[in-house]
């Protein structure tokens, strides 16, 4: 037993600093996936064509929706991979226990989710700038602005908590897989199988999931729902991680 | 063809594998390790900030969409438009007149050569009037085509011509309108109550109303497909 008393917050802070410097691969993957998203978005994230006998209207939309979607996926995958043994064992180079290790990982995930969300939204400007300069002369440009600063800030906050929520889902999935490696195959099969079974019974869980979160117009309720789900997913991850063997 | 059908899945798989390799710690790929990843992020962020500044600074020759408020007004106007046409109140639809034709005509029978309404794309109305003698008049009206409050300026024009005793009305040149739209990302649309749910997007929500109003002298025998036009009797 050591005579030096260590504070949890100090250890967590040190571990975050360590993770920030060591896990730079996550930034590379973020940049790569966002550039890929930008590339896909250059073709337009959607187009609408309607025709009547006299008019044929074709609108190509340019938004960074694909980049935001890819970033959400990146958040999920990054959190999933951070639960692998190689990453978790790193923490034992310091004075640690499972609580501080998980806590520092969650804070680190939040930090990178903030970066991911901000760069995803900023990439919208880059996309529009490129699209603007490659616009052929005869095509007209229509814009649909975000509105005021508060709408922009609200959207930014929403993006951050959406990416963070999916990272918590990835973290939970990763932790479950750590219980038994077979689960990496069993879990998707069970989840997809359940979705198919339930949808046959008229209960489309994926539709309810998206409606529950993304069709919520009230910002406060949206925040409450998203943060509650994030907390539940992380709490479940901690419960699952407690079932792992010591230093596993 | 089969390869094309599986392309999205293949791309997604490639992305997942590439990401896993980049993030996975035990991976042998040195790319993104050490400070390289951090520098990559910094350079990328600087690039994004610069593009944001340029985008906000340059005056874009664009049209800001005005949304649904204007559309609702147009929708009401369109309703009034058809009511007025069917009642023959031309003075009420004067603002939408695009073109007019006048043909000298002294025969007793007029043959109306038109395609079906759904092919022709315009609604044809015929009015017999005492005001005209030895003349056939045609007026083309069109209410604006709207895209989320934006009024399309290009106007369609049917091809109307008189040969001997036959008045031919054929579809004019089809107008191909191409637009590029810069929208906001879906998290920004989440709390936008006016535009509905986040999945809602810009569409041509209000199609234009059209009418070709033909005035012929009273007593003139008009021969044509009864389904292709509507007779108007202004009271």
Automatic annotation (TrEMBL), chain A:
Highest taxon, organism lineage: Bacteria
Stated name of the protein: ABC-2 family transporter protein
Organism lineage string: Bacteria, Bacillati, Bacillota, Bacilli, Bacillales
TM helices/strands, residue ranges: 20-39, 59-82, 103-131, 151-172, 179-199, 219-240
Record keywords: Membrane, Transmembrane, Transmembrane helix
UniProtKB/TrEMBL annotation, chain B:
Keywords, alphabetical: Membrane, Transmembrane, Transmembrane helix
UniProt KW Membrane keyword: yes
Record-annotated membrane-spanning stretches: 6-24, 36-58
Source organism superkingdom: Bacteria
Protein name from the UniProt record: Uncharacterized protein
